[in-house]
Amino acid sequence: MPHLRFTTLVEAPLTVAFDVARALGRPWGAPLEEVASERPYRDVYSGGRRGPTHTRSFSATGAGTLVEERVEWTPALPGPPGRVVDRLLVRRPLVRAMRAHLDAYAAAAARRALDVVQVVGVALVDGDRVLVAQRADGPFAGCWEFPGGKVEPGEADLEALVRECREELGVEVAPQAFLGEVPLDGVVGGGAPGVSTLRVWWGRVAAGEVTPHEHTELRWVVAADLGALDWIPADRPLLPDVVRVLDPASGRPANDEGGAGSSPHPPRAGG
């Protein structure tokens, strides 16, 4: 079956990229019916037995959301005549329309993201250990989490991460690599429910000694002990990704056991 693929990097969290894509629809008039949807990871629309099928997938990256789109259709005519018609009347117009549509979509999602309060976190690694912090108050008092907090207006994610560690732990940190993103189904910073996400990197302490300025306790733990802790709901899906950083030889994929690369049920807001 003939098809075209399009890829766009959107400067927006998973939830915003997904919601804006659905709101804008697609740049052609053929009516499509939704046949599958898993917010904010994937949706599929179909025009029936001979109509086009449009599939979108959304993946978190350190730079934003990677959106992959695939459009499939049934040729109007068989053989060489069908390929000529396909190229002139389907492929070329579709490519032009999709390029313009994706440019407008990326811009709209980036604008919408400015109104969403995001949460960032960091798994600070020292050899085969990672730093965990016990919450001092709130609905998850006594539960464990990775340090972090809300991104302030005008702040980049990594700037917020460094600032939060300075405030919470009294240290300077060096972020290393993006770990994953988890949708939050609660309200963050007075925003709409289910819009914000938690984006987490792993990093190292660059200067200073960790001190619990805002937490009840800080603890360095090895991979084998992570699962026994009582985690806030937002951070638990990231544990397999953290284990892979602590023990690369384990070979565990980032999305095993509900990792942040999979599609976990959205936890309550934990930032």
TrEMBL record:
<dbReference type="GO" id="GO:0044716">
    <property type="term" value="F:8-oxo-GDP phosphatase activity"/>
</dbReference>
<feature type="region of interest" description="Disordered">
    <location>
        <begin position="247"/>
        <end position="271"/>
    </location>
</feature>
<feature type="domain" description="Nudix hydrolase">
    <location>
        <begin position="115"/>
        <end position="244"/>
    </location>
</feature>
<dbReference type="GO" id="GO:0006281">
    <property type="term" value="P:DNA repair"/>
</dbReference>
<dbReference type="InterPro" id="IPR020476">
    <property type="entry name" value="Nudix_hydrolase"/>
</dbReference>
<keyword id="KW-0378">Hydrolase</keyword>
<dbReference type="InterPro" id="IPR015797">
    <property type="entry name" value="NUDIX_hydrolase-like_dom_sf"/>
</dbReference>
<dbReference type="InterPro" id="IPR000086">
    <property type="entry name" value="NUDIX_hydrolase_dom"/>
</dbReference>
<dbReference type="GO" id="GO:0044715">
    <property type="term" value="F:8-oxo-dGDP phosphatase activity"/>
</dbReference>
<dbReference type="Pfam" id="PF00293">
    <property type="entry name" value="NUDIX"/>
</dbReference>
<comment type="similarity">
    <text>Belongs to the Nudix hydrolase family.</text>
</comment>
<dbReference type="GO" id="GO:0046872">
    <property type="term" value="F:metal ion binding"/>
</dbReference>
<dbReference type="GO" id="GO:0035539">
    <property type="term" value="F:8-oxo-7,8-dihydrodeoxyguanosine triphosphate pyrophosphatase activity"/>
</dbReference>
<protein>
    <recommendedName>
        <fullName>8-oxo-dGTP diphosphatase</fullName>
        <ecNumber>3.6.1.55</ecNumber>
    </recommendedName>
</protein>
<keyword id="KW-0479">Metal-binding</keyword>
<dbReference type="InterPro" id="IPR047127">
    <property type="entry name" value="MutT-like"/>
</dbReference>
<dbReference type="GO" id="GO:0008413">
    <property type="term" value="F:8-oxo-7,8-dihydroguanosine triphosphate pyrophosphatase activity"/>
</dbReference>
<keyword id="KW-0227">DNA damage</keyword>
<keyword id="KW-0515">Mutator protein</keyword>
<dbReference type="GO" id="GO:0006260">
    <property type="term" value="P:DNA replication"/>
</dbReference>
<keyword id="KW-0460">Magnesium</keyword>
<keyword id="KW-0235">DNA replication</keyword>
<keyword id="KW-0234">DNA repair</keyword>
